[in-house]
Every structure is written in C-alpha cells, then in structure tokens.
Amino acid sequence: MLLEQITSAGIVGCGGAGFPTAAKLRAEAEYFIINAAECEPLLKTDHYVMNHFAKECVQAIAEVGKLLKAQHIVIATKVHYTKEIRALETAIDELQVPVSIFKMENYYPAGDEQAMVFEVTGRTVPPSGIPIEVGCVVSNISTMLNVYHAKQDKPFTHKLLTITGAVNNPKILQVPIGTSFADCLEMAGGATLEEFMFINGGPMMGRVGTKEEFFQQVVTKTTSGIILTEKRDFLYELFEKDMQQVINKARSSCIQCRLCTELCPRYQIGHPIHPHRIMRHLAITEVPEDISDDPIWQEALLCCSCGICEVIACPMGLMPRQVNNYVKARLAEKGIRYPKSEQPLIPSLMRDYQKVPPKNILLKDGLQEYAELKVEELVAFKPDTVTIPLKMHIGVPAQPVVGVGDTVQVGALIGKTPEKALGADIHASIDGTITAVTPEKITIEGRAI
C-alpha cells in the first residue's frame, strides 16, 4: 500500500538528481539511512523541515524502514545541528519508533550518499555501484516529508526551497511546482543588485546562470535553493568555461601535485579514481577522438562531480571536474561503462584529516558574505500561473494526459509515466485551466473552477 501511494504521488528524491523514490524502495535493506546533512553551504531547507516537521518525517521514516525490512534505521545529520537533533529526538521518543541518529562532522560533501554510507556503516559502495549493493538505501529528509503527505493521499505538488544571497529578505518558500523564479524573487523582496547572477541549487553542485536566464527558470521537484550573487568570473568558470580552454589549460599547467586526488571524496573511501592521472592523460591524447575504452579514462566515470578538486584542491586553477564530466559524456556516447572488478577497496588513511569545511568553500567562491544570513521564515505563495516541466527526474518524461481548455484542481494527474518505464507522474500544482501543452511542459492559469 505505501509503495503504491508513493508511486501515485509522483515522489522523487529532493536531495539530488531526482531518482523516483518508489523505484529505490523496491528492495530489502539492512540499513535505511536518511540524509539530513544539508550538505551544500547556504541552503537551509532541510533545517526547516527538521525543525518544523520532525514528527511527520520520523513517522514516514519508520514506516519506510519497515517496508524495507531494515534492521537499522538511521538519520544521519551534522553534530552541530543541535536544534534539529533535539527536534528529531523528541519526535522519536514521542512515536516510540526504532530510529537512531548518527552525528557526522561538518564537512563537504557529507551529503554524498556514498560518503554517508561509509560514515554510518564503514562499508564502501563498489565503484560505479549503488548503496543497495552493500545493504543500504539512502533517502533525503525532505523526501520523507513528501512520503508522509503521500500517506494522506496528497501528491507531490509543492516545493520547499531556500532563496538567499543578494536578496532583501532571504526566506524559505513553499511554492507550487512550476512557479517562476521571478515570483520567488518577488517573495524575497527583490534583488539587492541591479546586475546579478544566480545559482540554481547549492554553490558547489548547482547550476550557474545569468540574470537573463534567471527569468526563464521555474521551480521543479528537485529545486533545493536559489542563490543570487554579484557576477563572479570564478563561479562562471566552475560551470560554464569553454571546454577547449579547459583542456588546453590542463595540458599546459597541470603540475601533477595529486591534491585533486587526495581530496577526492570517492578516492578517500577507496574508489580507484585519480583525477591527476586523468589530467595527465590529456597531454598524450587527441581529444575527443582518443577518449575510448581506456582504464584511465574510465576512472572519470567514478567522479561524483562534487567540485572539491576545482574549488579547493587545485593550486593552478584547473578544472578536473569539468574534464571528468567531459570524458564521462564521451564514454557514454560510445556506450562504455565502468567495468566491475573484485579488486580490494582500501580507504585513505588520511581521510579524517582531509575533510573540507564548508566555510572554506564559501571563502573560495566569494560567497562568505551570505554565510550569516538568517533564513528561518517560511512564506507560502500561490502564483497566478505555473509552467510545469514533464521531466523533473531521472528516467523518461511523463506524457500529458490533459489538453488545452481542461480545468484541473490541485493534485489532478496531468502527466503519466509510460507503463514499465522509470519515471514519475506529474500533478497540477494550482487550481485552474490548462492553457498550453507540449511534450516538455504544461501551463496552468489559475481561474475559478
């Protein structure tokens, strides 16, 4: 019953790429681990969820743990989140459920699911593998709030997100999916800068865009935050630099210091990934022609794109993450995957001494001025119009099941996942009339029904 409710609600993971939650929960696991680490600096959404919806989350966590037949149900969060931990502990005591709290150090990326599995269990997920291979399922705390709503027969139609940075009133917003970023900015009192850039997501793994691009964006099921800041060349380079420039600079400037490897969180848990070797490989190959079934190129497939190699590690200002992403794309074009191996996985002995504090990331990104902003107030907002993408998740897009002129109410099914395909259903997020339908998106204008 619970799995069907989660499927019908169209729930996808709120903490990452949007993997359909029901597909992840069709398993049995020894450990059910909840990611409550709020890994990216400046984002405060999961903080709000833990502080204000702890009981709802814990109830959902316990029931999903039972569904998975998990022997251990663990909420992993950072040790200095004292207020949030108290709220969770109170909820656990009131509900009398077999849920424990694992307190992590404050480092980035504590929320990487494979790093979290290692922290909680001491097990290393196999290279290119997933947590269930070592008996674990990992899900985000905000995803569990949506599971709670699904049990009340409420589909995933609204999103909690942080809007912060160069705005007059940083806030937690609760908005219908499909709300424009422009409406979100208005709810935050507007920008403090005439010219700005934005990050859709967190400073390390979000997507950077221009002011012009900002006004084309809408909130999706995976939108975790919106950060406005002044134009910074460093941030643009991290995400948008011309690839040929990245390659040329890597060929000419890499000093093979190994710092990108030593600080790589996947290398630290024992994965055979060595970004410095990949950078060196650029100097002796023709790109992209020679990117093929080569053991060193294949190491790029293990990169989690956390960005530590670029933001923190490299003293030469090179872009190992972008190189890895480029190599991954070329290998994918040729259908090349990382080969499974039985080689032993040996974690780095220096791991505990090489964890990166989030404050170092903000200093390097030039975002430290926003570190102390209070983001605690929740504002709920209902726009006049929403534009809802039909693909907000890993898998295939949902297919429209409504037409122009149809009237819908909040929660009505408007996009259906094809049978036996990986995906998530899409629901109307406001009451209104369908005014546009394409294979990519559906527009609803709010009107009396």
What do you see in this structure?
The structure is a single chain. With 449 residues, the protein is an alpha/beta fold. It has four domains: 2-151, 3-Layer(aba) Sandwich (Rossmann fold); 157-232 and 366-383, Ubiquitin-like (UB roll), CATH 3.10.20; 249-351, no CATH class; 385-449, OB fold (Dihydrolipoamide Acetyltransferase, E2P) (Beta Barrel). It contains 18 helices and 17 strands. It has a six-stranded mixed β-sheet with strand order 8-7-9-5-6-10, with helices on both faces. A four-stranded parallel β-sheet has the order 3-2-1-4, with helices on both faces. Strand 16 and strand 17 (441-445) form a beta hairpin. Helix 11 (243-253) packs across helix 17. The chain is globular and about 60 Å long. The two termini are 32 Å apart. The mean pLDDT is 94.
Count the beta strands. 17
Number of helices: 18
Q: How many domains make up the 3D coordinates?
A: 4
Overall radius of gyration: 22 Å
- % residues in beta strands: 15-25%
For the largest sheet, list the strands in their spatial order: 8-7-9-5-6-10
What do we call the CATH homologous superfamily of the largest domain? Answer: NADH-ubiquinone oxidoreductase 51kDa subunit
Q: What is the level 1 CATH name of the largest domain? A: Alpha Beta
* Helix amount: 25-40%
Distance between the termini: 32 Å
